[in-house]
Amino acid sequence: MNKITEERLIGERALFMAHDVEINNCIFADGESPLKESKGIKVSRSSFQWKYPLWYSRDISVKNSTFFEMARAGIWYTNNITLEDILYEAPKGFRRCQGIKLFKVNFINADETLWSCADIEMQDVTAKGNYFAMNSKNMKIDDFNLAGNYSFDGCENIEMRNAKMISRDAFWNCSNVVVRDSYICGEYIGWNSQNITFENCTIESNQGFCYMKNVTLKNCRLLNTDLAFEYVSQVDAEITTKIVSIKNPISGRIQAAGVEELIFDDPAIDKNATEIVLTEK
Predict the structure, then answer these.
(1) Is residue 70 domain-resident?
(2) pLDDT score at 1
(3) What pLDDT, on the 0 to 100 scale, is given for residue 280?
(4) Domain presence at residue 261
(5) In the predicted model, what is the mean pLDDT of residues 11-33?
(6) Residue 19 CB partners (closer than 8 Å, separation 6+)
(7) Residue-level pLDDT at 96
(8) Lower CB density within 10 Å: C or N end of the chain?
(9) What is the DSSP string of 131-178?
(10) What is the pTM assigned to this prediction?
């Protein structure tokens, strides 16, 4: 394997079509698409300071490195890539990639990052930005922090645990999602989604869990949550706290420590199709 060490690489496509190269302590300075069409690349202790560093690449490893703010739209159409111990400042970080592993990555500006990607493993990842992970699928996520709205819109097959999310409109239009041992704060969680499970989670939401089908909550705390479950069908909710208000659920079972207000103002809804069980003594 060839090695490039302590170089400042400039100009467009500086290492175009590079194959089987180790890159250590290098700077990718001004010049677009430095590693376009590359494969078998190992990068360590290096920085990407300009646009489109990894497009149409495969079998890539980047460790202990930095993507600057101008490394915009940095990793697109790339398969089998691992990022470990990374400070990532640029937006639009991943697009239409497959086989992504992210370990100890800090996305400072995660706007429109991880769009239309598949087969993703994330551990110890922090992100700040809107529209994170839109239309992606097959995701396994552990130890995740996010501050950003409209996250995980249109996603499929997500397994998430140990997350903290401040995210309005999270998990819209999703299917086959399981979230465990997590905290989520944000209005309108989960609309238009199906086959969603929250287990041992703490959730705060205005008008959460509406227009959903087959939604399960196990041992969850709903804090300051009102107008919940509107037009939800096949709900199975086990809530250990009081709910501020429930509105127009279609069918299923909701168990809670109390409900301050139960609203049925749609005459098309059968009140008896949803069982409300209060456990407060």
Answers:
(1) no
(2) 77
(3) 72
(4) yes
(5) 97
(6) 38, 39, 40
(7) 98
(8) C
(9) STTTT-EEEEEEEEEEE-SSTTTT-EEEEEEEEEEE-TTTTTT-EEEE
(10) 0.95
